[in-house]
């Protein structure tokens, strides 16, 4: 269970999140959408315990997001995953598995069927961005987390890696894990997400259940001119009163 209550995050003078409130039940799959700079990554970083709220609270299963009990059950796939550049692919996974006191075998087995299958002995610094993303996802989830946070996970993936990721996410969702994914590609929500959280100017402006409807259709009804997601839209609707 995620409970963000009136959370503000400031970077110096700039409020990246402004009194944001969002609740997500166990097992839900929520897609965060919104224009560049609307606060999606900051919200994920807040949930990952990487930035503290300047005011307000963020709790994961009743404990603050930065608490080690929350960290042990959570994975965060960042847009460019932090990896040890001078380890090989296999060494990276062995190291992370060891840190979580897990056997490395299941993580290494997940390389099969990916472009990394024959790159186990390549240094991480020699991998392409799409390869790094695939390795980053396996490394971030060696501990079978119940809460998975993903920042633009499909960016740089080819069609086959993107399809594999979708099927992994569908499986995790079916297993009851809570998933929060931020994306500019609304098609990613289709058939996967239960809800869209539409962000603007540092707030969740709309919390939109999908009920099986394609995300683009649901969003078009709410926002026919695309003001909330188009990067070339003329004005920022986040200055209006929030409605949910
Ligand atoms: N480390 C930082 N220092 C200062 N300002 C930051 C920092 N990170 C983000 N911001 C600011 O916070 C606001 C929200 O940024 P954030 O990265 O959360 O948006 P986003 O919705 O993820 O954007 P995008 O779609 O472009 O990835 C922006 O105004 C951004 O300039």
From TrEMBL:
It comes from the Bacteria. Transmembrane segments: none annotated. Gene3D superfamilies: P-loop containing nucleotide triphosphate hydrolases (3.40.50.300). Signal peptide: none annotated. SUPFAM superfamilies: P-loop containing nucleoside triphosphate hydrolases (SSF52540). GO terms for molecular function: ATP binding. Residues 222-244 are annotated as: Disordered. InterPro entries: AAA+_ATPase (IPR003593), ABC_transporter-like_ATP-bd (IPR003439), ABC_Transporter_VariousFunc (IPR051782), P-loop_NTPase (IPR027417). Keywords: ATP-binding, Nucleotide-binding, Transport. Residues 2-226 form the ABC transporter domain. PANTHER family: ABC TRANSPORTER ATP-BINDING PROTEIN ALBC-RELATED. This is ABC transporter ATP-binding protein. It comes from Streptomyces pathocidini.
């Amino acid at each position: 269970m995620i409970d963000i209550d009136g959370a503000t995050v400031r970077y110096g003078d700039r409020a990246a999140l402004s009194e944001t409130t969002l609740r997500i039940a166990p097992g839900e799959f929520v897609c965060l959408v919104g224009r560049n700079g609307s606060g999606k990554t900051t919200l994920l970083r807040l949930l990952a315990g990487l930035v503290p709220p300047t005011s307000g609270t963020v709790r994961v299963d009743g404990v603050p997001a930065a608490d080690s009990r929350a960290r042990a059950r959570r994975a965060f796939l960042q847009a460019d995953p932090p990896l040890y550049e001078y380890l090989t692919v296999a060494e990276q996974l062995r190291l992370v598995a060891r840190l979580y006191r897990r056997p490395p075998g299941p993580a290494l087995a997940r390389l099969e069927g990916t472009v990394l299958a024959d790159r186990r002995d390549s240094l991480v610094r020699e991998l392409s961005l799409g390869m790094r993303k695939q390795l980053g996802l396996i490394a971030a989830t060696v501990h079978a987390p119940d809460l998975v946070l993903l920042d633009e996970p499909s960016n740089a993936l080819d069609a086959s890696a993107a399809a594999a990721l979708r099927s992994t996410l569908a499986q995790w969702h079916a297993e009851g894990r809570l998933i929060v994914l931020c994306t500019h590609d609304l098609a990613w929500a289709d058939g996967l997400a239960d809800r869209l959280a539409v962000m603007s100017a540092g707030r969740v402006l709309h919390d939109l259940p999908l009920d099986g409807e394609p995300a683009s259709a649901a969003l078009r009804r709410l926002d026919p001119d695309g003001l909330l997601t188009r990067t070339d839209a003329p004005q920022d609707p986040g200055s209006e009163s929030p409605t949910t």
